[in-house]
Amino acid sequence: MSLRRAALRVVTAVERACAPACARTSSTRARAALWSSSSSPPLEPPSTAIASAGARVRVRTYASGLTVDGGVTPAVEAVPTSIARAPSDEAWTRDLARGTEARRKEVFGVVQIRSHQFKVSPDDLIYVDKVKDVEVNDVVTLPRVLMLGNKSETVIGRPTVPGAEVVALVEEHVRDGKKLIFKKKRRKNHRRMNGYRAQLTGLRVLEIRGIEEA
């Protein structure tokens, strides 16, 4: 095979490979030119059309960023830390037998603590991975609230609800029940049995701020 014939075959193969892409590009440009030259008015968003027609539009309440026509904008505030110590000037009523009393309120919230999420209400007790630098009877705040709700409404965060927080009391530091870890390699006379007990912190929910009762 001569060198001229080999080069001609290579050029032909390249043209065949590029033909679909070139066709797609030309068709896309043609559609864009046709769309720009059209004199028809732009289409309205579905929600705007429904509102202009006089229909009732139910809009779910979101914390920030979500508009009626579906446009999503990022939250202005950065995602706060999952747990923080409460200010020392909090007006909590102390009790010798109980410690700090929870403020009864028929609301709920979904709070994120590190990589776990909990649905909590006032006076609930949750166990999380051990929180360092806090002692028993210390009051802490959980500002990373993903959702709030009561009997009549629900507020969804994007990703968190601005200005909302959960106040909790550190009740105890405990160790979880023992979990057995058994490993075996067959036909190798290899067996290992280990135990593990996770360190936990018990938090008593005192108050959920950011929403009122219905």
From TrEMBL:
GO terms for cellular component: cytoplasm; ribonucleoprotein complex; ribosome. The keyword Glycoprotein does not apply. GO terms for molecular function: RNA binding; structural constituent of ribosome. The keyword rRNA-binding does not apply. Keywords: Ribonucleoprotein, Ribosomal protein. It comes from the Eukaryota. InterPro entries: bL21-like, bL21-like_sf, Ribosomal_bL21. Transmembrane segments: none annotated. It holds the Pfam family Ribosomal_L21p. GO terms for biological process: translation. PANTHER family: 50S RIBOSOMAL PROTEIN L21, LARGE RIBOSOMAL SUBUNIT PROTEIN BL21M. HAMAP family: Ribosomal_bL21 (MF_01363). Belongs to the bacterial ribosomal protein bL21 family. This is Large ribosomal subunit protein bL21m. It comes from Ostreococcus tauri.
